[in-house]
């Protein structure tokens, strides 16, 4: 069963079965101001400190004006919408609001509030922190009206100090709420909550650093894969016939490249059961003693695995250099071109297959 009542133009609905309350269609609660709500604020103030609770309440008020602004926008003018909102606010215990002045050109507004819950809580506690939540709500509303990125509500009159009302002057501010919180961290008024904020910031930095390290590891893995692909391209081993593989060498063959080339060649001989390996030097323009020694080592290693090595494509200038530096080629099978090497090895492979067939 739903019980309904209208107070100040706002419809209240009470569901007697579910024991829930809705105000203007939105979920709501009734609360004792001088005991429950005042006790809640007092506990928070003891834990986080006065300045922290002011900033927190101001931020909460500022961030909670979406529905207030939508309600104001239903009226033809801002002034009319704000006047309508004051009636709803009064019905919900937010006190009586008065728009004292509004200068759209100078972007300045002055608002008063009487008999609202925030001042009543502080009166019950015998303190005067200022009505920061209400000030934040006004800051959020006029921030949208002025069309600026941030506003601040400066409280200039305090009901908790014996004045008839709380009064706020709202203007655009170059200092954001977040900046004010940051500033508080470096003062003597810092509290355990500030430490918690700092620890949370450290936690986020650690998470961000871990994410950065993950991205770096992924990039390093990608670079490693790319290097492997480049090495494979720099030493391509091609199976040109059954039992015949060819390794074309290009550029300079240094110690590192020679070791990688030998490893890849020996793996290919075993995997493909190759009986012939052609090392083609057509792409080698210059050779020295070290390079020649690397090539001889390749040949010996391949022969140890039972593969015959054939050297092809030695250029005239390279041949002259090899002779002049005294490299013994008498034990190597050398042919003028890769084509000649292929014909030799493929012919041998065919002969071997025929002999096997018999």
Q: What does this protein look like?
A:
- The chain has 358 residues and is α+β, with helices and mostly antiparallel strands.
- The chain has four domains: 1-30, no CATH class; 34-188, Muramoyl-pentapeptide Carboxypeptidase, domain 2, CATH 3.30.1380; 191-234; 235-357, 2-Layer Sandwich (Transcription Regulator spoIIAA), CATH 3.30.750.24.
- Helices cover 53% and strands 21% of the residues.
- The chain contains twelve helices and 13 strands.
- The protein has a five-stranded mixed β-sheet with strand order 9-10-11-12-13, with helices on both faces. Strands 1-2-3-4 form a four-stranded antiparallel β-sheet, with no helix packed on it.
- α1 crosses α2 (50-63) and α1 (33-48) packs across α5.
- It is rod-shaped and about 115 Å long.
- It starts with a strand and ends with a helix.
- The relative contact order is 0.07.
- Mean pLDDT is 83; it is low at 354-358.
Q: Could you tell me the number of beta strands?
A: 13
N-to-C series of helices and strands: EEEEHHHHEEHHEEHHEEHEHEHEH
Radius of gyration: 43 Å
| Percentage of residues assigned to helices | 40-55%
Instruction: Give the second-level CATH assignment, the architecture of the largest domain.
Output: 2-Layer Sandwich
| Relative strand content | 15-25%
What CATH calls the topology of the largest domain is: Muramoyl-pentapeptide Carboxypeptidase, domain 2
- Morphology: rod-shaped
CATH class of the largest domain: Alpha Beta
The average pLDDT score comes to 83
Structural class: alpha+beta
Kindly report how far apart the N and C termini lie: 101 Å
- What is the spatial order of strands in the main beta sheet? 9-10-11-12-13
**Main sheet record:** 5 strands, mixed
Counted by DSSP, the helix tally is 12
